[in-house]
Structure prediction request, 98 residues.
Amino acid sequence: MIIVNKKKFFRGLLIIAGIIFFISIFFSNISFSHQDVTTKSIAVSKGDTLWSIAKVEQEQNNYYEGKDVRDIIQDIKQINNLQSSNLKTNQVLEIPTF
Prediction:
């Protein structure tokens, strides 16, 4: 490969490198936290909903500090392999915590 115009070649490389850099930053889910995540078990009481559980966890659990309730619900559903938001009394849920 013969480089005819070095200025255009390096400008193109710089643009491509910049695009790759910004895409990797935008899509990265890197956590710089080195805290160990553990889980706690909670039993569902009569009248509990995923929303009410997520709201309590948002307020009292440092793991969910600053997160949206809807994201917390999705996280709880994923961790517990729930296909729907329906809960049963005495069902045990695993909740992440620090």
In short: The radius of gyration is 23 Å. The chain has a mean pLDDT of 89.
